[in-house]
Write the structure tokens for this entry.
Amino acid sequence: MLTGKQKRFLRSKAHHLNPIFQVGKGGVNENMVQQISEALEVRELIKVSVLQNCEYDKQEVADDIATGTKADIVQIIGNTIVLYRESVEQKQLVLP
């Protein structure tokens, strides 16, 4: 779990990022979780956009992705989810 200070730090880092995944009508599936997990290994911090036609609540989508990828939900703002997972091989961010 992330502390408040760490979440603030990660939110400031994520501010300039663009969403690299979109969750649409089909919701979250195994393939998407796998791809997001690989992206987290490379980038550590990513944004996922939940489209208007998604049948699921954005909190459900965030929980599904976080559980599947073992990532932390930094923030859900509007229809955008910010996720963080420490990289094993390519560590870039140093949390306060």
About this structure: The chain has one domain: 4-84. The chain is about 40% helix and 20% strand. The chain has a mean pLDDT of 93. The longest strand covers residues 45-50.
